[in-house]
């Protein structure tokens, strides 16, 4: 791991400021390839250790589609096509209402200062209540380059119907048009709004947590780090699933999928370079961009809220998640970790009807229930 110190909160805050932008636009035309600096490109192209990933779960193996874009790895020029594919997965309204138990509402949250407004999808429980409800702020997956507030919304709606909490899904800005720290700013805007408006929203800040899957898991972890370090409104707990945490691709599991799997090494490098403006793998990547960088500085981890992490054994991010869970535990954080045998990246969201997905999703739900009923 890098020995380069993570920037101090003041330095990181300067780095987080974005230029004034009139709004959020996403160009659908293919983008030119950007050359990564020599350190990252050499790391990506260097010979990788010969490794074989653990076997897939039998049921999940039948559902696996190799490559996120038409059966192949993601390259920068494929991002517009990936967005088309992601848009085609927009859920049907019936998947969100849960038979009348959930009421979906689209809102736009005003940005702070020169930051743009942030669209959100709020999923309200329709059951009566006489006290403030718990809330869960959700960050969708998509490698930081695709997805919307509707990505993963059926799963969030299931929690709303089952547990009676308020679900708030963030439509953060996407890379490469909006590199780090744009998405983190958008998540910060929404978390601050929920805390500022908790009386009007009828939610309890002490029971408000943050959740994310894949890229969204990295964003959830990044915001939790930033909130703790800078005194911002902090989540009461965090749930980070199959999380995208480290831009260096240096742990063994990142060499186990190269040209195979739902999300492979090439796709991951493409996504990280889009998010970090071509600087993935550089020594000075801040922990607010890649939370695993905080492992070199345990003081950044001490005092974080209870954390749930899970990942499949056949996931590219497996060892990054295991390392982050170990770092949290050694820093004294209440940490729950689950390693699912034979699970590929995103399996419990993309194949929720399989046996292993049922177990993984129910285990995650049990943790969430405990957090909101403490």
Number of helical regions: 13
Q: Total number of β-strand segments?
A: 8
* Secondary-structure-derived class: alpha/beta
The radius of gyration computed from the alpha-carbon positions, rounded to a whole number of angstroms, is 19 Å
Distance between the termini: 37 Å
Strand order of the largest sheet: 1-2-4-3-5-6-7-8
* Overall 3D form: globular
- Provide the low-confidence segments as ranges: 1-23, 25-43
Summarize model confidence as the mean pLDDT. 89
Q: Which sequence of SSEs, written as H and E, runs from N to C?
A: HHHHHEEEHEHHEHEHEHEHH
The major beta sheet can be summarized as:
8 strands, mixed
Strand content: 5-15%
Helix content: 25-40%
Topology of this protein?
Blueprint: H1 9-16, H2 38-45, H3 58-61, H4 79-87, H5 93-97, E1 102-109, E2 118-125, E3 133-139, H6 153-163, E4 166-170, H7 182-196, H8 198-201, E5 203-213, H9 215-230, E6 238-241, H10 265-275, E7 307-312, H11 318-330, E8 335-340, H12 347-350, H13 355-372
Parallel strand pairs: 3-4, 3-5, 5-6, 6-7, 7-8
Antiparallel strand pairs: 1-2, 2-4
Helix pairs in contact: 7-9
């Amino acid at each position: 791991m890098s020995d380069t110190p993570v920037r101090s909160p003041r330095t990181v805050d300067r780095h987080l400021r974005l230029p004034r932008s009139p709004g959020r636009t996403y160009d659908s035309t293919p983008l030119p390839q950007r050359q990564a600096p020599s350190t990252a490109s050499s790391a990506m192209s260097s010979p990788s250790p010969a490794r074989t990933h653990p076997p897939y779960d039998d049921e999940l193996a039948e559902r696996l589609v190799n490559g996120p874009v038409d059966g192949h790895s993601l390259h920068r020029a494929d991002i517009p096509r990936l967005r088309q594919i992601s848009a085609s997965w927009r859920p049907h309204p019936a998947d969100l209402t849960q038979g009348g138990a959930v009421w979906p509402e689209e809102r736009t949250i005003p940005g702070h200062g020169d930051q743009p407004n942030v669209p959100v999808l709020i999923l309200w429980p329709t059951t009566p209540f006489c006290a403030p409800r718990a809330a869960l702020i959700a960050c969708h997956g998509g490698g930081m380059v695709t997805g919307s507030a509707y990505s993963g919304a059926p799963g969030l709606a299931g929690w709303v119907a089952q547990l009676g909490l308020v679900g708030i899904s963030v439509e953060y800005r996407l890379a490469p048009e909006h590199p780090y720290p744009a998405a983190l700013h958008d998540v910060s805007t929404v978390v601050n709004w929920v805390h500022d408006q908790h009386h009007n929203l009828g939610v309890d800040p002490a029971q408000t947590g943050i959740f994310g899957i894949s890229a969204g898991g990295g964003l959830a972890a990044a915001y939790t780090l930033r909130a703790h370090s800078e005194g911002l409104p902090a989540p009461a707990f965090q749930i980070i699933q199959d999380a995208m945490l480290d831009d260096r691709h240096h742990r063994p599991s990142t060499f186990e999928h190269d040209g195979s799997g739902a999300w492979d090494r090439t796709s991951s490098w493409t996504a990280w370079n889009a998010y970090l403006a071509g600087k993935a793998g550089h020594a000075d990547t801040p922990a607010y961009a890649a939370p695993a960088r905080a492992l070199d500085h345990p003081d950044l981890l001490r005092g974080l809220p209870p954390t749930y992490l899970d990942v499949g054994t056949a996931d590219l991010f497996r060892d990054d998640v295991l390392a982050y869970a170990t770092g949290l535990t050694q820093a004294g954080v209440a940490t729950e970790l689950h390693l699912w045998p034979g699970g590929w990246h995103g399996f419990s969201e993309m194949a929720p009807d399989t046996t292993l997905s049922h177990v993984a999703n129910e285990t995650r739900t049990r943790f969430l229930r405990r957090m909101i009923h403490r």
